[in-house]
Amino acid sequence: ECPAGGLDEYGLPNACGLALAEDLVYQLQNQFDDEILAAWDEVGVPPVLLKQLIRQESQFWPGTWGLYHWGLGHVTYSGAHTGLLWNYNLFREVCIYTYDGQCRGIDEMLIYSLLSFFNAECAECENQLDIEKAERSVHYLAETVLGHCNQTSQIIYNVTGRPADEVVDYVTIWKLTLYDYNAGAPCVYETVK
Length: 193
Description:
The chain is an all-alpha fold. The chain has ten helices and two strands; from the N terminus they run αααββααααααα. The longest helix is centred in the C-terminal third of the chain and has 30 residues, at 131-160.
C-alpha cells in the first residue's frame, strides 16, 4: 500500500511503512514476554535485563546469524560453552537431551546441542520460524546468562578475595554479567581489577 513497498532508497522503512507495521512491531516485541517472565521465576534472570538483551542482540528474531550467532540472544559457541561450564543445571539438562545423562564433560557435541536449542528457523513453518521452539529457547537463554553471572561472581571473588555480594550491588553484578556475555571473562577480570 505504500510508495516503494514501504521502503526508502536505502531499504529502510519510510513513514508509510513504519505506520503500517506499527502493530506488528509491538506484537513481535512482546511475543516472548510470558517466557521471559517464566524464566525470571524458574532461573532468576531479571526479566527487563533478558528482554533488553534480546532486543539488543536479535531485535526479537529467533534464527541464526551466519555461522556464529544463534537465536534470540545471539549466543556464540564460546558463550554456550561458558553457560554450560558455569551453570550445572544447564549442563545437566543439555547432557540428558544429548547423551541421555551420560556426559563426561563439555564437548563440542554438547555445545552444539545447546546452540541448536536457540535456532528456531524452520523451512516448513509459517514465516519459516518455529515459534514454539523460539519460546522454549528463552529458558535456555536465561540459563546461559545465569552461567555468565556465576562466572562473573567467581571473577569478582578471584580479584577481591570476597564474595560478589560483598563487593558489588545487584545492578552492578548484572551489568558485569552482560559485559561477560558480550566481551568475555578476561575483559571483566581487567575491569574488576
